[in-house]
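Exercise: predict the fold of this chain.
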Amino acid sequence: MPLAFDQKRHKLKTMKKARALKRGDTIGVAAPSSPFDRTLFQHGVKALEGLGFEVRFRKDIFDQNRYFAGTEKRRAEELMELMVDESVRAIMFARGGYGCQRVIPLLDVEALKKNAKPVIGFSDITALLTFLRQGAGIPTFYGPVITQLGKGSSDSTSAGLLRALTTPGPLGNLPCGKARTMKPGTASGKLVGGCLTLINSSIGTPYELDTENSILFIEDAGEKIYALDRMLTQLKAGGSLDRARAIVIGDIIPPQGEKHDIDAMLADALAGFKGPVVDGFPAGHSGEFVTLPMGVNVTIDATDKDRTPSIEVTEGLLT
């Protein structure tokens, strides 16, 4: 089915609210990107069931086609099937990897708009989350995938996911762990963002990330320091950074053996940014993951470099 979505329509003004989940609700799992480890997947399903949810997935979720979890047709049909099934109350993903960008053009936007439910994912899923939120008003969370839960996620990660999915109204103050203030200040705006590589790869597409008046969250893993510098420089040159009111940096994990300093690069690349910058927020590719509601209003207080900054979610994504 052709993509019913274009550049002029990608800045959706309203986002639908969805019902908060309760114990016994069904979470559907899709694999729109790369294939994955079956054992980790099964462990992750058990972890999700341990939180009180029923879990549903198709038998062909384990298909492989080159570096994808089956054909584009299979992956798109799987996602649409879960989206329109009223008995499925939320959708999570087997893993990230690569491939969901190739699925987006096959999705039925009008059907998506009629079936708002929470969608949770990260990494490569960034592109899909941005598309669903900006193009169809679907409530999205930047949170763990099933195989990540299967590795034995921390209690705080599981508790954070459960809190995000079952809390109606604003989440209030988020646990900031060892986050620190790189540049002091206060700011309020819509929380957007995700994996830096995917944010950059969306530029020029119908699902390019809109950073206007936003609190921009970024994280990434496995990219060399110069590549991260290049991506931030591109966002700066294109105006995406100037349009944001604040930046929150999650896990930035360079490959082993990287000789350059990540903190020095970030300080240099973001030196001219006008708003506050918070570094070290616990979300992304490492062990601890604070699930983030995307597209809602948050307020950052990073006025004191000697005190842990605060991030307060002041708008609810679920009812």
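Check your answer against the key: The longest helix spans residues 38-50.
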